[in-house]
Amino acid sequence: MRKLLVAVLVLTSTSLFAQSEMKGSKCLDILTDGHRRDSQNFTINLNDYDAPDFGKDYLAQAIFAVKNLVQKEGCSRQDINFGKGPLGKSHSRCKFIQPGMHNSLACYIETNLGYFQVSYDYLGTANVFFSRWD
After folding, report:
1. d(Cα 46, Cα 49) in Å, to the nearest integer?
2. 30 alpha-carbon distance from chain centroid
3. Please, are residues 128 and 69 in contact by the beta-carbon 8 Å criterion?
4. What is the pTM of this model?
């Protein structure tokens, strides 16, 4: 009886893991145009979203842009994990290329799907560049 219970638990967890991987794979198909591209550029107008005031938390603002972008493209929030990179914990950061120039802000964000680079213009548009891990 105990062996049967263990077998059922293993099969259930394996099935749930496979379903989770399939969801992420569908999102990766969307972001890479059916795997025809390794990288792709997107734009998202942040004025179309009810964004909170992030103050100087530039990384949170960039993650907000990426979350809304992937949802707009057809992915679910469960498909993307901002805490996990290819080698474990993700390493994301933002820096000003030219100090004091807001439009020189560039953010690098690692996820389970790939990495995103986010920059902004003066009109509320986030330019998001996605590259899959390979």
Report:
1. 5
2. 12
3. yes
4. 0.78
